[in-house]
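mind reviewing this fold:
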Amino acid sequence: MLRFPSPSHASPPRPPAPPGRSRNRRRTAAVAALAVAASLTVPASAGAAPVPRPAAPGHPAPPAKQAVATGFGGAVSTVDPDASRTALEVLKRGGNAMDAAVASAATLGVTEPYVSAIGGGGFITYYNARTRRVYALDGREFAPKRMRQDSFVDPATGRPLPFDQAVTSGLSVGVPGTLAQWDLALRRFGTRDLGSLLRPAIGVADRGFVVDQEFHDQTAVNEARFRDIVPTRELFLPGGKVPEVGSVFRNPDLADTYRELARHGTDWFYEGGLGKEIVETVARPPVDPKATRAVRPGLMERGDLGAYRAVPRKPTHVSYRGTDVYGMPPSSSGGSTVGEALNILGNFRLDPRDPVTALHYYLEASKLAYADRGRYVGDADKVDVPLEELLSSGFARERACQIKPDRAAPAPVAPGSPDGRYEPCVPPGTQTRALAFEGPQTTHLVVADKWGDVVSYTLSIEQFGGSGITVPGRGFLLNNELTDFSFQPPAPGQAPDPNLPGPHKRPRSSMAPTLVLEEGRPRLAVGTPGGSTIITTVLQILVNRLDLGMDLPAALAAPRATQRNTPQVFAEQAFIDRYGRDLAARGHRLELFPGPPQGVIGAATGLEFLRPGLVQAVAEPTRRGGGSALVVRPAR
């Protein structure tokens, strides 16, 4: 049972966080991040319509999930029933949306260790009902001070490291931001201390959870990599085997780590003993001496952890179809790219009676916005990002004029010029930077409370399994977020790259926790995992809901396609079956999304306020095994 001090939501909010981390007041925090691979492909059984594997004899079946819940008093949607129940219990006992989001994320660190953890980072957008404002909290990892533009270039060859070698290495590990972000979020907006919010996750880690098909498959796809790293093998391959569906997986090391965080606070992570263990693990990855895999050491030092700060930022904002859409600013490209694409689409009428034309415009707007993302968006603390112009109506009109209603532009298209001097049209280009790889393995949760506060939170350790490196005896994996940087500086004469590595620089992300307000009050919250497909998934859900007349469950479940300024439009099979022929007639080249998982784009969660007080929480019905939506008091 959760036990909390009596709620005081009506009391004034905590003062804004100071520029430095509050060392004396730092509360405990933790979300275990256990990681699973980068260059790999999830088996077909993890696709859009998974075939459940029977539980192992003598083992319980995984808990049931429901994709839609409508009711009052608060709502939550995550990918995992344990995480959703944790958030719901916090709400029932008087905690607010931020309290519930942090507790839920900590539980996801146990049950979804390959995509979320205290070894990673994330982004939060938050609507505060008291102030009627939207806030953005940046917990993105940053690079060590010793990181340079050519750190991912092999000095022996002068060429970028092979991607799989870069991922499974200490070199890929960014300074984790999750705990600092939780500390900032709770000090500014929470009503509970982090120690109490970790208790449900500690219970799940001690008791264990029932292994489902998704966890089994994510482990199996990483089996060879995990075997080569001793503490990862010992934790995630118990008895030397991939856990069977229906078996119970326990993580007592993570439970103990959470207890120590509750006792010592997050300074133990950033400036104390746990931080020292993390740095030692990154510098000397614990590889089995018998393994033939080359696992490079990393560049992280103790001072890098001490220098890390989670940062409050001004959210991005655009108006669209009578709503206000808020998102995450750089270093995430989510808010800027979703916002630019919506601004472009605002120049066209999207008719639900003609979905093919609407989807054509959606794909073309995505193509143009991705070209601009690649050229201009990086860590705004380190490079000049023309964010105001990228989100200006003038720039959107200039880009929209390139779209032909009956013909797709050959991709890649060139970026535009967000310089404040906008012509009716600019000639289409043919040269632009190639799409950088960005791992699709992330998770997203949404929470609303009875006061009307709303959290949209995307968190990640990058690939399934992150770097593959587990901190010995601590129960969590370290991220590989630094592989989101561009690996090699541009050739002489080419445009500068805003996403090159650098000291204490945050790699560009696509995470897009999004809030939609109408007349100043929340209407929608949505987000998804999916690497660089996050942007198109969020955008397509918004188009489905706001333009094509779908309700939110249908908007999430609808088949997806992603156009990221590549020659192909990658899509799910159901999208190809339904729209492929008509879109091909307009010049779109559709191919099955390669994954991982193959043929599956994203795993979104969302919620919608149907009327004051009545909230509908929505999760995926089938993708990645489906999600879990719950409400405090179901509507009858």
